[in-house]
Write a structure and sequence with these properties.
transmembrane, transmembrane helix, Na/K-Atpase_Interacting, signal, mainly alpha
Length: 181
């Protein structure tokens, strides 16, 4: 087999997807966004499964990866719609944290160029609690950073889906040719 086979390309794409999911997982943990954390965790597990299936010539694992990839694209389309407030969705809701906390995207306060100012509450009894955080000067708004992350995930997933289908067909052809001999 040559180095530029579909199998090698799928291994490379799975590795990129793994890195992108790990990066996204870190920032979702920093923002306490539990729904994306759960989704990223599943993505990491299934991409590892797809990587293992590709390396070990196990088409069933790649089929699981392929099915999950379709679901992952759907999830990321939802994330894009959520942050762009399409169809009645609002990024101001606690949907991403399962309504258990008031946390938001980590990028909201820590994006590139953002200047964060914390305004302490006026009541003297609550020293550790901050009532308002003012963020100004961001080069790019946090919702667009989240959309870019999801768009990259979609792009990698769609390319991975195509190559996974190709690799499955190659594995099946090789399996069929071995059976007929």
């Amino acid at each position: 087999m040559g180095c530029c086979t579909g199998r090698c390309t799928l291994i490379f794409l799975c590795s990129l997807q793994l890195l992108a999911a790990l990066e996204r997982q870190i920032f979702d943990f920093l923002g306490f966004q539990w729904a994306p954390i759960l989704g990223n965790f599943l993505q990491i597990i299934v991409v590892i499964l797809g990587l293992f299936g590709t390396i070990q010539f196990r088409p069933r694992y790649i089929v699981v990866y392929t099915v999950w990839t379709a679901l992952w694209v759907t999830w990321n389309v939802f994330i894009i719609c959520f942050y762009l407030e399409v169809g009645g969705l609002s990024k101001e809701t606690d949907l991403m944290t399962f309504n258990i906390s008031m946390h938001r995207s980590w990028w909201r306060e820590h994006g590139p160029g953002c200047i964060r100012r914390v305004v302490r509450p006026s009541s003297p009894g609550t020293l550790d609690d901050y009532s308002y955080v003012s963020v100004t000067g961001c080069i790019i708004d946090f919702q667009y950073l989240e959309v870019i992350h999801s768009a990259i995930q979609i792009l990698l997933s769609l390319i991975g889906f195509v190559y996974a289908c190709y690799v499955i067909s190659i594995f099946m052809e090789e399996e069929d040719s071995c059976r007929t001999k």
